[in-house]
Hints:
The protein is α+β, with helices and mostly antiparallel strands and about 240 residues long. The chain is built from nine helices and nine strands. It starts with 7 loop residues before the first strand and ends with a helix.
Amino acid sequence: MEKIKDLVAERRTYSNTQDTHSHSYAQLILPLQGQLFINAGAQELLVDHETLFFLPPKCAHTFHSVVRNEFLILDIPHFMLTRNVLGNRGYSWKLNNQWKGIRYLILNEINQKHRNQTALKELYPYISFYLLQDQQPRSISYIHEHYNEKISLQKLASLEHYNRSYYSDWFLKQTGKSPSTYIQEVRLNKAKELLLNTDLPILHIAIQVGFEHQSSLTRLFQKYEGISPRQFREKTGF
């Protein structure tokens, strides 16, 4: 398997001859024109002007194109990937404005007479963020968007079209935590952010992160930090 040590971004075209291979690095495929047929694992996809595709490392894939085409390809070394974007199947998404902006920035870098590898590396954290965001299961995204509300297990399970029992097992495999523990940790981290960056009363912070009473937030801090929210704020020097 071919290995790479740096990010590689370039324009590529594909022929109508089917090619099958795999490699130790990941690829992000962004359309410029035309279409690309790709079979990755159990997926058969058409990447066109409205679609982008992420191919994880070591994923065997077959691809070809029957029309004039050009794609922007970003080869990503496996060691730059977080665990969350490692997997055995590809992912495709709509080419929204966020990804169009990223595509423009990558093109701008490779169109320079003197390519700046540092600039490309500085752009990668944004790419990684959106890869993680777009791959995140719907129920986990829901938790991050609605942590300040009451979140039922039934609601989360329904977002993934699972029954409650199966969903709990599935969630544990996805995150290493139960849904209730995950929600608590999201609320705790948001409370920490508010304690560090605002002078809001602790009761208001408790309400903003989904608790009806300040005592609930205090119990959460005692459980995970061993101190109260007030002590946490004092300790961090706000």
